[in-house]
Amino acid sequence: MFVTVVSSLDVFARQKACAVLAAERPGALVVFHDLLGGGVVVRRVFKEGRCLERQESTLEHGCLSCTVRLDVVPALRRLAVQGTHVILGLPAAVESSMAVGALLKGLGSAVTVTSVVLACAPDAVEDQIWDHHTLFESGFTPVPEDDRTSGEFLVGELSFGDTVMLSDPALVPVDPGLRVRGGQLLKELAPHAVVADADGAVKQGRHRLAKAMGRTVPGSVRVPDHPSAPFSTVVHRIRRPLHPERFRHALKALAEGSCWLRGTLWVASAPGCRIAVQGIGPRVWLENTGPWQADRDPLLRTPPEGGGAGLDWHPEYGDRGTVLAVTGDAVDAAEVAALLNACELTDDEMASAAASFEDPLGLNEPTETHQRSN
Length: 374
Known about the structure:
Elements: E1 2-8, H1 11-23, E2 29-35, E3 40-47, E4 50-58, H2 64-79, E5 85-89, H3 96-107, E6 112-120, H4 122-130, H5 150-160, E7 163-166, H6 176-189, E8 194-197, H7 209-215, E9 231-238, H8 244-256, E10 260-265, E11 273-280, E12 283-291, H9 293-296, E13 322-329, H10 333-341, H11 347-350, E14 368-372
Parallel strand pairs: 1-5, 1-6, 2-5, 6-7, 7-8
Antiparallel strand pairs: 2-3, 3-4, 9-13, 10-11, 10-13, 11-12, 12-14
């Protein structure tokens, strides 16, 4: 069985994208799941525009992962005999990586995921990136405990997916200028993906699980070969550790001017910890991802396979260092460089003991540390 997975924040954008994809594959089954309040899951199955079944069920725990595990996977296992290709429309705000992982675990070699598609209205993307409300507060999910923002969901889907479908719900007029701008932002945020217009020729990327998982590793950096004006991405690297207090102040300035901030930090207050940073719209958080490769293997003198986390392997520092990518509207590379270079330790500070640096960001904790601005 071949499966195309479609995720979205908007059920109307999702359904339009699924309809376009189904028109390209005569005989394909289109399976929609929707999670309502009270743990109610609605499942609908279509073939060539005709509804084959509609069923409601109530899950004991009405969460997103339970919906995938207890309804989506069993439904596809049962429907596998009815067609060779399934277009799976996930409930709003359900992560495609969760669904793909559950399908591969539950169905094994019986399923091949051909493409992972994010359906979205391009004119709304920038506002959704900057929305400080949670998905529940914005009405995208009935799960009160879901404290992700729409921007966090979108960037996660853009990272894992291979295709972006520009799919405008036919409910309100679309601003042509905002639509073009949103399309450019999507190309800047997902340079690896095929960006297709639901109203034009249908194009799809190809799902490669290893590459998709690699793009979602905390601290990973990828940039487009060419900027999608007016948006651009600036990458800056620093070899020496960062002064924690100076970086704390610089981080706010860096985040304020960027749609997406990500990378890896080497901070003097936690020198043995590889710190991943991610900023999406109004939220910024830091995560201690464990020791550097050079600390795991002190005798290592050459970079391990895959390189050194965005930095060339240094004979003294190994993979330790800072690499930061800033994506936004007209990002000033000189300003980014000045902010980060001012955080780099001086010669005198390098000679100081690591213990002399306070840890204002709490980076020595082995779990995620949030520095969020709502």
